[in-house]
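FAQ: What does the model actually see?

It sees only this:
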Amino acid sequence: MRFFTRNEINDFLSLHNYDIRISHNGRWIDQKCTADVVTIIADCIVNYVSENGNEPFSSMDIWHNGYTVENVEDIFKKPNPDEKKARNEYDKFFQQPMEMLANACVLNKTKRGNRNFYAIANQEMLEFISLSDRKALTFIQCYIEKVLTDSGIIDLFVNFFNNDIKSNFENMKEAFEDFTIAYTPINGRTECRRIFTKVINPLAFLHGTSGTEGGHLSQHKITYDMLMYNRDNFRDIYANKPKEMTRAEYAETVNIHANSNLTKYMSQRAKRIVRAYNDQFRNGITEVLNDTNHVGDLATHVHHIFPEAEYPEICMYLENLIALTPTQHFNYAHPNGNTQRIDRDYQQICLLAKSDVIREDIEQHDEPIYEFAKFLFVCCVGLCNESFNEIEDEDYDGVVTAINLAYIA
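And it is asked to produce this:
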């Protein structure tokens, strides 16, 4: 598994011509092509091919695969795929991202009668997209920009991003609709506008501007959650929690109930990401380097600093996971190998070590996988300490001090 930079994604895209005036493909992106949907569909394809080989597969093969059924039902709150009433919705849910990936040349596409079949064209890129919403979003942003550039209409969007006022927005939207109707089989403005939302908003988030909401110029800048199919965010949910109320009390008050299947899936995927990152960028060695007996040893285990069972809301956060050697995991993190227990002193060591890894990632990589704000949230929830909310962005000394103070007892 490989992590791509934005420049490397652009290098891949530069090998292909996505000019809509030539392809006449109005479905090069579509309503279901949100980052969280695309990443799970990519993950389902990767899993399917690992079990069945890279023989041509249909969208039905992917959605009826056991791995998909187990995870997609809970993550996207769709009805069971075996129910007849779900067929049309599931068809869009799988077909649209697969069509986008095929148009982008990440998948190959062939036709048998009236059915589409696919195979993986670029395994590394598909695996990268399957890593996380963030990675999928980076790919989607690069892809959109390349399609608009090849199609000769990027200037409409650049003009808006330089000055996101209503007149520029209306001109851009109308020109996009005219272009789509002129060069693709889509002939209705309503359908053009649905696609336009999926084009403008990922780029608006990238450029830090307004986008579209409800068919109109958004009043505020486009935020990350607005780009997702599932918009629930634990940080947003707990943002309004009174300081004197515990997480459990607040969760009961606002009716927050963790989806165990969802958290399990997200947790396992997060572990894969941390392991892949550690292998690629840290030569697979342990993240805890203060133990001279294990410096240079391979970290084959990924450990939750704050246990998954007790803190489901942060179990999928990369910032709550750390790569350890088997000895560090079962002898130090879990005393005597008892996974039901956490050594509090070693937990502190893990948090401090993780802060170093996060700092290194953010400072050295253009596209880091870690976020400082998420690390603060992990510390805030795991240590039940609101003081982490007061730490300024990327104040690593501040977070180290706060961690050490939290363990003085």
